[in-house]
Target: ABC transporter substrate-binding protein
Amino acid sequence: MKNKGLLATVAVLVLVLVGYGLFQGGKNAGKASENASSSETAADKHYSVGVLQLMSHPALDQIYEGIKEGLAAEGLEEGKNLTLHFQNGQGDQSKLNTMSQQLIKDKSEVLVGIATPAAQALDNNVKNKDIPIVLGAVTDPKGADLVASNEAPGANITGVSDQPPVEEIIELAHKLLPEAKKVGMLYASSEANSKFQIEKASEKAKELGLEVVNKPVSSTNEVAQTVQILAKEVDFVFIPLDNTIANAMETVAQEAEKQQLPIFPSVETMVEQGGVATIGISQKELGVQTGKMAAQIAKGEADPATTAIYTFAKGETIINRQLAETLGIQLTDELTKEARFTD
Model:
């Protein structure tokens, strides 16, 4: 009887253990299935990104192309899992506001502003700060009142600064034109980012013993005449990252060529259009970095409040060799080795 009782006890224990094992197996299988389902959902998620561009000119257009590449590099591709809403304000502030509202209505999960006025329009229209905004080509995000600081933005905005090394560009111009005495500063009076750059460039010019002549314009209509005036007053002209002047660069280049006036802009595309040289940041790469940041935020991998503004550490020396030769500018062997030429 005792043996029968013992056998019965063992049998019960075996059944309990087997049942527990089956229960755990089923539970784990359920979790695995749940995880697989969750993973599948994440992989199949469709994203919506809205992009607002200030206007069309080569530099900003390259940034937009770069943004698409950056999004794709992070796995967000049009025609697959991304709807990209694009609006171009063509330099009209009222259009920027209307287009910002449309991008919000499109239920964009992340908004991208190409150039300071576009980013400010988006910020003004996201009333509750509940949609992330990524800055593309904003020279001074803090100065534009878009972030608390470049290191810790603090709310719904982060992105990429296109701050050029303006002091180095002035130094490059001084190196190429050692006999120069006066430098003209050509920029739009309406662009706060330009004023910020002009202040830094002017300080460096004065350090090098150059006299500074400021010539702000209120619109592209004043550009041709202003260049003609500068040609009589200065030895070369510096142009900051300025969308108004960039939009009129062909006019600048035509008038400068007539007057044999060297122009030193802050972006590669403007060198290609008729500037002598710059130390610049690739606009395409700037866009790629912007696109990557937008994708990471859309996927929940980054928080704009704690993601520092990205600033490129070093620019590249870019020279229009043919124009330099036409103007009689001598290029040293050292500069020739380190520079990239547009021709």
Notes: The two ends are 104 Å apart (CA to CA).
